[in-house]
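[User]
Protein folding is very new to me. Any chance you could explain this protein sequence and its structure tokens? I have pasted everything here:
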Amino acid sequence: YHPGDSTRESTVIIGDSAMRHAWYLDPNPGWTTQNLWAGGAPTGGGGHAGTPDPTSGHTGPYVYGYNLNGDYGNNPPDEDLTTGAIDCTGMFGTRLRFWRWAGVEDPLHDKISVWASADSISWTNVWENATEICDTSWVFMDVDISRVADNEPAVHLRWRIGPTDGANRYCGWNIDDVEIWGMTADPQPVVEGLAIETGRPN
């Protein structure tokens, strides 16, 4: 040990990631919807700009979507689809996986996003569109929510549309086959030594 050396505590998680919760939206799980968010069968409508909605879910006929009959409107407030409480106690490296069929203008004009909360009061943005999206088929999403959800007993998730501007209208969100994955092994703290260059001989 030399002057200038230091140590830090790291966390090593050992275990297999596996699916812990799943909602395939057939039947509707009864999540909280605002305005045009709804569970049901999409109709293939929309496409004022971008591409239209799908005509069925990724699996089965039903999805959660924003306006199942077409595009989102101009200048709505932020509008959300919000899950009930999800028990992630004992889970680590937690991830949200789902399938999307989405359409949205670039984020300078319109936004869609995903949020997570451990208490349904304080929310963290875990994903948002970085470019225009014009899906023509179902797209798999894998989102790291560990910084919010790990070992928490009442995690809530939220899909948001907005803000949008007053110009182009796209088909917005359609989601299906929502899963929560994580490891259940306890994290083990490991003290790791870090040698810092001091210029002193050994």
